[in-house]
Amino acid sequence: MQVGLLGHGVVGSGVRRIIDDMNAKKNACLCIKRILVKDENEMVEDRMTRNIDDIILDQDIQLVVECMGGKEPAHTFVERALESGKHVVTSNKKMLASYGDELFELARKNGVKLLYEASVGGGIPWMAELRRIRRIDDIECFEGIFNGTTNYILSRMDAEGCEFDEMLVQAQSLGYAERDPSDDIDGYDVAYKTALSCLAAFDCYVDPQEIPVWGIRNITKKDMEYANEHGFSIKLLGKGEKKDGILQCSVMPCFVPRGGTFASVPLNYNAISSVSETLGKAVFTGQGAGSLPTAHAVVQDMLDIATGADIAEHSITACSVDESTEVTCYIRNCSIPVQYVSEKVDADTVITVPLSYAKLKELTDNTRGVMVIEVKK
Q: How many Cβ atoms sit within 10 Å of the Cβ of residue 85?
């Protein structure tokens, strides 16, 4: 199968390397014919082009692999590929979470596949495992560490007793965090991945902007010390549950018990768990990012398409997030009315009574420097 590859950055170059190596071993059913690059200085071989039409209009190319990142022009290019009757594999969680409803419908109308294993969990086969579980069980719920950048920062703060800003700079120096880390540290990256997990687990398309989100930007050494004193680690978790037709999901830092499933997940690793009736709780752990682990997931999707693997199609329903779920939280640097306070930790910090996500947003939105951490019971 002839392939058009969009993007030759961290993930795209990894995909090209794996496919070319497979061809060198003479056992590949895939061949990259064209590679779309952004800049003239990236044009280092004959396959490379800066014109998307060289891929979209090429009748020999049956599969387009999008590894560009960002919403545009990735969304437009994927849309054109599907309209042209080409299968698409993408690693782009931001684009797919934002436009998934229309793109999956477009794929269905044109009789082609749209696969996205690498968009959540990097090298962890999270989407594939959800599909396997759903052949037998309904997924009841999932939760996990979906972002390696924030897990690295929190792990290092915990281990070294350092402040957030110092660990962020270290993560950036190692390439774990972007120059602008907002999507990661403010929780939006996890919201995109949580939305896509809801799609795979529950057939629910949810706008990631509807998901209640709290990030880790304002976490301090003081919060880490409180966690340690009470036998906890702090992890940023994305969660989703569908019960009696009602969808609940969120992204927020949580106190998790030391010795529990997530507390020991190190550095930039991810760990995600699902719960279903006959399998019970299953946990999937591995590299959540990086060139070759993510490219490995992309190529697995490519092989599924090239070999005609039987992949169940989504029957997607647009869903709204129910914000009535109640959580108990540790809140610092926010004036909380006394009726919502269960315990006063110090002059700046309280433990709340159980509050709905809607009420929690009302109390904490637009408060500079606020830190919200769920106290898991």
A: 11
Q: DSSP string covering 247-295, please?
A: EEEEEEEEEEETTSTTTT--TTEEEEEEEETTTEEEEEEEE-S-HHHHH
How wide is the angle at C-alpha 138 spanned by C-alphas 134 and 140, nearest 5°?
Answer: 125
Output the pLDDT for position 377.
Answer: 63
Beta partners for residue 255, in sequence order: 234, 375
How many helices (H) does the chain have, and how many strands (E)?
Answer: 12, 19
Three-class HEC string of 177-235: CCCCCHHHHCCHHHHHHHHHHHHHHHCEECCHHHCCECCCCCCCHHHHHHHHHCCEEEE
Angstrom distances, CA of residue 322 to CA of 43, 172, 362 = 48, 36, 15
The CATH number corresponding to 138-286 among 2.170.150.20, 3.40.220.10, 3.30.2390.10, 3.30.360.10 equals 3.30.360.10
- Give residue 161's region: left, alpha or beta (phi > 0; psi -120 to 50): left
Active-site annotation holder among 86, 94, 193, 239: 193
CATH class of 2-122+294-306: alpha beta
- Whether the CB-CB separation of 236 and 253 falls below 8 Å is answered with yes
| Catalytic residue list contains 71 | no
Q: Do residues 150 and 141 touch, judged by C-beta distance below 8 A?
A: no
3-state helix, strand, coil in the chain (%, to 5): 40, 25, 35
Half-sphere exposure of 343 (CA within 13 A, CB side): 7
For residue 376, give every residue at least 6 positions away whose Cβ sits within 8 Å of its Cβ, in sequence order, or none: 254, 255, 256, 257
Task: Note the pLDDT tens digit of each residue in 307-331.
Answer: 988 887 767 888 899 999 999 999 9
Domain range list for the chain = 2-122+294-306, 138-286, 323-377
Count how many residues are written for the chain.
377
**High-pLDDT (> 70) share of the chain, %:** 99
The set of residues, in sequence order, having a beta carbon less than 8 Å from that of 162 and lying 6+ positions away, is 156, 221
Other C-beta atoms closer than 10 Å to the C-beta of 165 total 11
The predicted model gives 106-110 an average pLDDT of: 95
Predicted TM-score (pTM) above 0.85: yes
Q: What pLDDT, in 10s, does the model give residues 349-359?
A: 999 999 999 99
